[in-house]
Here is the input.
Amino acid sequence: MTALFDASSIERDYAFLDACPEALVGDVVTLPVGTLQERVAGLLGWRDALLAGRLPAEGSWPSAPVDAPIRAALQEMDLARFCRDQPDLVAALLADILAAVRQQTDAFHGDILTRLRELEDLERQGMAQAEAAVHASGEPCARMRISVSQLDKLRIQAHRDALARPREADTQLQSQWQERARVWAEVFDVFGDLGELLGRGWDLSQGVLRQTGWLEIQRLHKLLAQLPQLREIVRTLGRMQEALEGEAVLETVFQ
Here is the structure.
């Protein structure tokens, strides 16, 4: 007897997809790294960590060495600090991180294949030398071929060699985000400094960047052009405030 199709069981099996950002579902589903559930959980881990202003713990999805170039690029740009409590920025960054995961996975598999071909060539060269030595001795010699067990060993060695290969920072991520990170850092640092001058723990950097738009570099450049004058104004106000506070202290002492 044929079992009836149970649509509700499929819905239950894939309920974890509901937590995945809708705009990224297509990329997550087609990504060839881990199971679908691992990919969704990994993506959510990245999102939560970035919203907290940091990178996820090493050893999480995706595993080494795919994650190494991505982490290196983000660390060099110090990008995570700008992501704190910025869901729109994190969503845009995650899309490029998923693309980088795909690219780095392809690159890793390409490294394995290249190394395997090199090891196979070395193995064949060794066999050819052995055949020549046997022929030179006058003994009959059958044609040597790489066996299935030898090929399995070569695959394992190729994988190990590819894992041990040093990985540089992901250049595509850097090209997409480095200029933004540079401008944000300048605005962030300057307005953070102004907040300290104003006192009372003001954090102008987050507010200004949020109002300007994290992804609008041109508007940020225009803002930066005005920063030297703005910094001097706030410094003047700070000096005036200190002078007034000093006078109030003197008045209190001599009353």
In short: Residues 87-136 form the longest helix (50 residues). The chain has ten helices and no strands. The radius of gyration is 29 Å.
